[in-house]
Amino acid sequence: MLELASVGSKVLQTRSVSLAMKEGVRVQVLSSFVDEHAVPADDLPGTMIVGDEELEGSDMERQLITGIAADKNEAKVTLTRVADRPGAVAAIFSPLADANINVDMIIQNVAKDKGETDVTFTVPSADLARAQTLLEERKDAIGYFRLIAEGDVAKISVVGVGMRSHAGIASTMFKTLADRGINIQAISTSEIKISVLISADETELAVRLLHTAYGLDAKDAA
């Protein structure tokens, strides 16, 4: 749930999940669409978020994929022909960190002729203008040729503990999007999350396709 909150899911705020996990507090997620005559919270259907230790020895089957989240508040920045030398990448990201601009997905291409490379990364849309200004002011120090900024992108994330031990999770995601002509611009992974960057106007379609591909439709209907 912490991963889902951090990648754009609007169900819970990231800080609330983080505090609950730190203090071992169980969190019950319920619908907000109830009236004054609703039954008590304990009797309402919903989702109870608990720690892994509470699931030890239970008969509950772990879902391979827990959920899919979309975040349209992303912007992509590419620096072309960056000098392929020690310290070049640090020169890019250090000023961004000093300005409290969070960098998420990072891709560095294979150096061309062992002398230059392209570096692509994402920042929050709200910080794009500041990031551009900082990098343009340091163009000579960084040693890049051109800065390309794109704001019309979205990050789609598939989250689930099952991807730690099950092959094919990533390939299912990539093939599902490719079959409908959705181009992947960037990829990042962790032990329980795979995120891709796509065009923002394909967000809803991508989420629906992945929801079906991982069997979450059947889970909702149950």
Task: Explain this structure.
With 222 residues, the chain is of the alpha+beta class. It folds into 3 domains: 2-55, no CATH class; 67-71 and 153-221, 2-Layer Sandwich (VC0802-like), CATH 3.30.2130; 74-152, Alpha-Beta Plaits. The protein has 9 helices and 8 strands. The protein has helices spanning 2-6, 14-23, 52-55, 88-98, 128-137, 139-142, 169-179, 203-213, 216-221; strands at residues 27-29, 47-49, 67-83, 106-108, 116-124, 146-159, 186-190, 193-199. The strands form 2 sheets. It has a 6-stranded antiparallel β-sheet with strand order 4-5-3-6-8-7. It has a two-stranded antiparallel ribbon with strand order 1-2. A hairpin with a 2-residue loop joins β7 (186-190) and β8. The chain is globular, with a radius of gyration of 21 Å.
- Total strand count, please? 8
Q: SSE string, helix = H, strand = E?
A: HHEEHEHEEHHEHEEHH
Distance between the termini: 21 Å
Percent helix: 25-40%
Low-confidence stretches: 5-9
Work out the strand percent. Answer: 25-35%
**What is the CATH superfamily classification of the largest domain?**
ACT domain
In short:
The protein has 222 residues and is α+β, with helices and mostly antiparallel strands.
Write the layout of secondary structure elements.
Blueprint: H1 2-6, H2 14-23, E1 27-29, E2 47-49, H3 52-55, E3 67-83, H4 88-98, E4 106-108, E5 116-124, H5 128-137, H6 139-142, E6 146-159, H7 169-179, E7 186-190, E8 193-199, H8 203-213, H9 216-221
